[in-house]
Amino acid sequence: MLGIRLENVTKRFDNVLALDRINLEIDAGEFFFLLGPSGCGKTTLLRILAGFEQPESGRVLFDERDVTAVPPHERNTGMVFQNYALWPHMTVWKNVEYGLTMRNMPQHERDQKVKRALEMVQMSGYARRSPNQLSGGQQQRVALARALVIEPDVVLLDEPLSNLDARLRLEMREQLLDLQRTLDVTMIYVTHDQKEALAMGERIAVMQMGKVAQIGTPRDVYRQPLTRFVADFIGEINLISGEIKSVESGVVAATDVGDMLGQAGYEGIQVGDRVLCAIRPEAIGFLLDESGAVDNVISGHVQRAIYLGEVEQFFVELASGDQVKLIKYDATMQHVQPGDEVRLGFSQVVMLRDEAEDRDEAV
Ligand code: ATP
Q1: What spacing in Å lies between the alpha carbon of 40 and ligand 1's midpoint?
Q2: 83 lines ligand 1 (CB under 6 A)
Q3: Beta pairing partners, 304
Q4: Angle formed by the axes of helices 92-102 and 136-148, to 10°?
Q5: Is the CB of 192 under 6 A from ligand 1?
Q6: Residue 164: what pLDDT?
Q7: Which of 79, 127, 148, 231 is deepest in the core (most CB within 10 A)?
Q8: What are φ and ψ of residue 59, in 5° steps?
């Protein structure tokens, strides 16, 4: 188990800047997530940590040891690839044993360790099978056993659950979390699935076009996104344009639907700034009477309601023409229907900088 530091890591492929001056610190024993859309550089970063790729500039440190130029087999990292990359001509046992054989470990020690690794992922009964006789979830567990058997200091996981169906994915999430806790190992997990990152990560680095857009706990990045990109990527968000008119007692923005009170989403916010008032769909409620201590109230009419079982979604058009989305868990209590005039109340508003480049890049 060790801590990792990346200092100004840059990587270019021909004319693509895959990583642009990445600075990151990952604590020993942390379950750390790299989250971002396709092509943002997640896999490249993971491969640099494993030693399969060399950065063009910058340094990679494992604890205080500079491993930038150290080859993969001398780093003691275990990697689980997206497609598992099991060797089809070897049995499950041989696949898991491979890393130990390469380390010239005596047979009896190898046997013990392979046995334990297969037990750990609950695959002991499958040792003699070949990978093509296994389901996706079983292959995934063998790949995990193969990564863990060498007792790595760091485990690198590249979208390890993406080939599994929804139920198995949930089951494997739990197993991975248990393993991470039991083994007390530093794990770095790449995904483009924000739910996976929120549910499992201790901290998440949200990546955007080769850069780290934000690092924080799941709660931080969800509740306090620093940019529109992060707000959009990490969940659903309503955005209403405005201009800051006061930063005295709370931050107030003037918008087309009235003044809005919220909190600054960035440092140095000042009167005159163009902002986006960001509000999560579940933070908005229907105001059916005068009660309710909320900071903001706006009116509109319900355009659409979509019943999804556990929740119901509502789309409300405001006087400005903007559309706001709400997610309600107890909507049946409220009898709100398309066509209804409604008042919406909410408090948790984050004022994000409204930047032209942000507008272009937002997904
Ligand atoms: P995905 O989720 O689709 O796997 P990613 O975030 O992991 O995406 P990377 O695979 O790290 O993204 O790729 C980052 C950028 O670098 C992309 O634009 C990609 O096309 C480019 N890239 C990655 N590897 C190579 C390579 N070997 N040669 C050329 N370009 C590459």
Answers
A1: 7
A2: no
A3: 315
A4: 20
A5: yes
A6: 76
A7: 231
A8: -130, 150
Question: Above pLDDT 90, what percent of the chain?
Answer: 68
* Token pair listed for 63: 């604890």
What is the chain's mean pLDDT, rounded? 90
Question: Token pair for residue 278?
Answer: 């960001």
Strands (E) across 225-359 are located at 238-246, 251-255, 258-264, 274-279, 285-287, 296-307, 312-318, 323-328, 341-346, 350-353
Token pair recorded at residue 64: 């205080």
Confidence (pTM): 0.88
| Residue whose CA is at the smallest distance from ligand 1 atom 26 | 13
d(CA 331, CA 305): 10
Atom of ligand 1 nearest to the CA of 43: 7
Cβ–ligand 1 distance for 36 under 6 Å, the answer yes
Q: What is the pLDDT of residues 308-356, one digit of tens each?
A: 888 899 999 998 899 999 998 876 666 788 999 999 999 999 999 987 6
What's the pLDDT at 362? Answer: 43
Cβ 110 under 6 angstroms from ligand 1 = no
**Closest ligand 1 atom, residue 14 Cα:** 29
Which pLDDT tens digit goes with each residue over 239-283?
999 999 999 888 999 999 999 999 999 999 999 999 999 999 999
Closest ligand 1 atom to 19 CA: 14
Ligand 1: centre distance to CA 43 (Å): 7
| Strand pairing category for 312-318 and 274-279 | unpaired
Q: At what angle do helices 107-120 and 136-148 cross, to 10 degrees?
A: 130
Question: Could you tell me the distance, in angstroms and rounded to a whole number, from the CA of residue 13 to the centre of ligand 1?
Answer: 9
Question: What are the tens digits of pLDDT across the range 213-235?
Answer: 999 999 999 999 999 999 999 98
Q: By C-alpha distance, which of 189, 236, 230, 187 is closest to 212?
A: 230
Task: Taking residues 106-120, report their average pLDDT.
Answer: 91
CA of 147 to the centre of ligand 1 (A): 23
Q: 39 alpha carbon to ligand 1 midpoint, in Å?
A: 5
pLDDT at 336: 86
